[in-house]
Amino acid sequence: MAGNVRLNFNQAALNNLAAEVTQKWAQLRQPLLDKVHQECAGKPVDVVKQHLATTWHTETGEPLTEPQLTEWATAISEGTRLTLTT
User: Fold this and answer.
1) Mean pLDDT computed over every residue of the chain
2) What is the pLDDT of residues 20-70, one digit of tens each?
3) The pTM is what?
């Protein structure tokens, strides 16, 4: 016969951990976006898109999704500095 196991779950601690991880993620990637902005602001979207995709993947090992890549590249092309917030 299996015994009952009680699992206590601390939602506040989980939320705090998630916030810390998300903040750290943004802090690590913001310089990358700033670099691409410096190098590509004002250039055509296709040029920014290629540079952003390559730089992001090289630095993080992660791909950007197509909707996000286009949105960010368009903003950078228009001269907007992207800021990752949590």
Assistant:
1) 93
2) 999 998 999 999 999 999 999 999 999 999 999 999 999 999 999 999 999
3) 0.78
Q: Tokens at residue 55, please?
A: 């730089």
Whole-angstrom distance, CA of residue 74 vs CA of residue 68: 10
| Torsional class of 42: left (φ above 0), alpha (ψ -120 to 50), beta (otherwise) | left
In the 8-state DSSP scheme, what is residue 65?
P
Residue appearing with tokens 């993080």: 60
- Check if the beta carbon of residue 42 is closer than 8 Å to that of residue 79: yes
pLDDT at position 7, please?
A: 81
Quickly count: other Cβ atoms within 10 Å of residue 44's Cβ: 11
